[in-house]
Amino acid sequence: MAPVVGRYLGPMFGGIETGGTKTVCAVGIDGAIEQRTQFPTGDDPVALAERCAQFFAGKSVQAIGIGTFGPCDPDPGSPHYGHILATPKPGWSGVDLLGMLAPRLGVPLAMTTDVTAAALGEQRYGAGRGMSNLVYLTIGTGVGGGAVVDGRILHGATHPEMGHTRIPVLAQGGVCPYHGDCFEGLASGPAMATREGRSGPEISDDDPAWDLEAEIVAAGLHAITCMLSPQCIIVGGGVGSRGGDHVHRADPTDVARRPDHALPSEAGHLVADLAERPGDRL
Amino acid sequence: MAPVVGRYLGPMFGGIETGGTKTVCAVGIDGAIEQRTQFPTGDDPVALAERCAQFFAGKSVQAIGIGTFGPCDPDPGSPHYGHILATPKPGWSGVDLLGMLAPRLGVPLAMTTDVTAAALGEQRYGAGRGMSNLVYLTIGTGVGGGAVVDGRILHGATHPEMGHTRIPVLAQGGVCPYHGDCFEGLASGPAMATREGRSGPEISDDDPAWDLEAEIVAAGLHAITCMLSPQCIIVGGGVGSRGGDHVHRADPTDVARRPDHALPSEAGHLVADLAERPGDRL
Questions:
Q1: ipTM score of the complex?
Q2: pLDDT digits over A10-67, tens only?
Q3: Residue A191 in contact with residue A177, Cβ under 8 Å?
Q4: I want to staple A161 with a disulfide (CB 3.0 to 4.6 A). Which of A16, B93, B206, B262 is the partner?
């Protein structure tokens, strides 16, 4: 029998994104996706872990990285590493997600928040290649951000909650149940829909509603820039990638009204390379 | 001749803080100051470098760390590492501070912003010992912050400008020449003096003016917490350390109106251990 001749491309790694609505599993080599699947996250963590295990069965991955909806405990040194913390999402408060996945997957796992995983992904394989300091920001149903600092992901005591930063109030009727008019309360898809009295798909890409949205986004980008001084902010999410590049109209220096030295001129914002950009997610 | 008998305590290191008004030079062993001096920073960088050299002459320091007023370039990989950037301070725009000091001091030097140096100092020897993620915030003539992330200082593209983060407007008449009502524009000593129509020394530690100041500070602490998730925020500066512990009245969760999971309950703020706290600096 002739030997099987193949080309070794490098080690295969796996990824899991557990989102608020759907979960995506994928395997890939050097950042290129070879195979992927998705299914509803649902309200039964055990069933979700089983579905993930089915996908990875027989695939020779070296390790799997997990990006999850939050809040979660992403600290490998914590006894609650990999747990979902208190969440309004039914069935998920306090769930030991990593503990459920580990015995079923049988390879080394690492877990962080979905946006932190996206920040790392964009830095390694996407719009942030070659940069060591960047922020990934998603603007969609919610607003959230993850950061890479000096090439390493930022967790801090738990993890950032950038979407809940309070910004100057540029519009009325913020929808965050906690703060009303925080960044998420003003910039998210539901906020925009409530403000405009129209659902996302009804707002066309050249609608003037994007002007105010761009101003609000700029305020958020300015706050991120003041706090973290990233080389760039990569914007994804259903809203963040819509509106005829409204993100590119969002200029933090407009909001800053401050000379370049406080907002380095080389800093900018980019649209995510890797994130999905479904126009219907607004 | 009998040999000199001494006890070797460890290597001696030096420190220089070039502030907007005064410059401090010190030497110490393992964080304990052995000797220090101070003089006006002035508007002649060469004269300043000479005075620093005089202090360190004959002192056997292994290396010297420099914390400077900003904006500056703290990136060791940059061709402008150690330069002061555009500043309204007379005589200092574009000055190569590190380049002036290096030949005069003759030992390895490292430079960062004053607040970043303070963050590192508090983490190694002060109120932040044992923590790997913290922010040092000074509230005085200006407002500025420096961060330690995973035990390492955060610079990003240039360095944070936390004082210029815009926060919810809780008072009228912010004094920042760039933003009016940013954190510095609302919380600094000049802001408070302008708002109250009285100079700092005229405002006693139990004055009701501190209630509004505490609320503004809480908004700033909340923004820092959302962005960086520090284990603690250490507050120093002439205003930050006054007002009958008004800092301890500043509770970011008040401003947050959000369950603990977004603002970790173990996070708190502390008064700086190492910073001077002159009551007359307000």
A1: 0.88
A2: 899 999 999 988 999 999 998 889 999 999 999 999 999 999 999 999 999 999 999 9
A3: no
A4: B262
Residue reference for tokens 């919810």: B168
Q: With b meaning 16 or more CB within 10 Å and e meaning fewer, what string describes A243-270? A: beebbebbbbbebbebeebbbbeebebb
Task: Report yes or no: A83 and A94 within 8 Å, Cβ to Cβ.
Answer: yes
B223 vs A: CB within 8 A: yes
- Rg (chain A; Cα; Å): 20
Start-to-end CA span in chain B (Å):
56
Report the distance separating Cα A282 and Cα A207, nearest Å.
Answer: 14
- Structure tokens belonging to residue A85: 């913390």
Q: Which amino acid is at B29?
A: I
> Which chain A residues are Cβ-neighbours of B167 within 8 angstroms?
166, 168
Give the whole-angstrom CA distance, residue A175 versus residue A182: 9
Quote the crossing angle between the two packed helices A189-196 and A209-228, to the nearest 10°.
Answer: 150
- Give the pTM: 0.89
Judging contacts by C-beta atoms under 8 Å, the chain A residues touching residue B234 are none
3-state secondary structure of B207: coil
